[in-house]
Amino acid sequence: MKLLVTGCAGFIGSNFVYYYLRKYKDSFIVGLDKLTYAGNLENLSKLTEEEKQRFVFIRGDINNNELLNHIFEKYNIDVVVNFAAESHVDRSIFEPHVFIKTNVLGVQSLLSVAMEHWFRGDKWLEGKRFIQISTDEVYGSLGPEGYFTENTPLDPHSPYSASKAGGDLIAKAYYDTFKMPVIITRCSNNYGPYQFPEKLIPLMIWNALNHKELPVYGDGKNIRDWLYVEDHCKAIDLVIEKGKIGEVYNIGGHNERENIYVVKKIIEVLRRKTGDDKINEDLIKFVKDRPGHDRRYAMDPTKIQTELGWKHTYSFEEGLEITIDWYLNNLDWVRNTISGEYLKFYEKNYLGR
Length: 353
Ligand code: NAD
Ligand code: DAU
Prior knowledge:
alpha/beta, 44% helix, 353 residues
């Protein structure tokens, strides 16, 4: 099986490349990534020599049809897994156009080039799959009760989630109109190794280790439904293998936690592991809320559980221990990742919130 994995140098993309190459010894992955501030080839540096024989990296943009055509021609791609995206909600508030370009127009480019290569005469070639990786944020925000199902109407609130909803709808349109073999997955908040330290969990780990303030937005009672990244990779693997074309699958592990709980837990685990008493709750600072901040996300994963046999394996507390160990063992990775372009953006837009 030959996969085109876009966004392969980002957080989930790189975890998926490791997961897939290690599980399927006869698989071959073409990894495409533009290497924005969030993409980092260091994320793929742990591939073994054998795995490198089954992986090729191409630096490029999913909007570049000429490059995409070249990839499809040269590698005879069976499956596209589209992770490539601008992924950070706060950034989408500062520069929405970048999000529309990649998360909407980029998806359309990928779909159109895949269609050119997979639709022959009047039918689709056998075994092809286009997996659009999406998010629970397209459903909007929940009150204290209830869950998002695949039938929940889309109601995105941030430029990020609106752009992801746009990508989903164009992907759905390719199925509805052309019967293209598209499947959409929508996942809750991921965490784990290689997550860029702008997102809640790695940012709090890094700031706490450096005795810096831990900025909690609003009252800290917003709820996210946390999923360890390996569980997400397993779900995508099952969707590639057994997912039904034209369907949407929600992915989530019933690990709803308030942000303030997450931050306090990070402090507790870090202090235990490092013995550093300066890592304590005095570091917490409640700051101005994120505009349009969704209150609660919670996924109903019944469909992927009953139809494909997926179930999450890690509780939030188990996954957090592993994640914190990984960051403690990879502090140079964090330093490298947040230097350069990202740091300038962060200093300009975030400091002094
Ligand atoms: P990330 O920001 O860590 O990685 C995104 C990658 O895409 C980066 O390597 C970046 O360089 C690349 N990229 C950006 N624009 C590109 C372009 N135009 N062409 C090619 N490559 C480009 O993001 P992530 O957290 O790994 O998220 C991956 C996907 O999963 C995204 O589609 C995101 O919407 C979705 N998702 C993420 C989460 C989460 O909690 N992280 C949850 C649900 C869904
Ligand atoms: O739900 C899935 C989504 O999860 C993905 O689609 C996105 O790509 C991913 O970035 C993530 O979005 P969130 O906005 O939920 O993640 P983030 O880590 O930015 O924030 C998590 C919660 O923590 C959110 O309620 C905002 C809050 N927060 C975040 C940061 C960075 C803080 O209180 N302080 C912070 O400094």
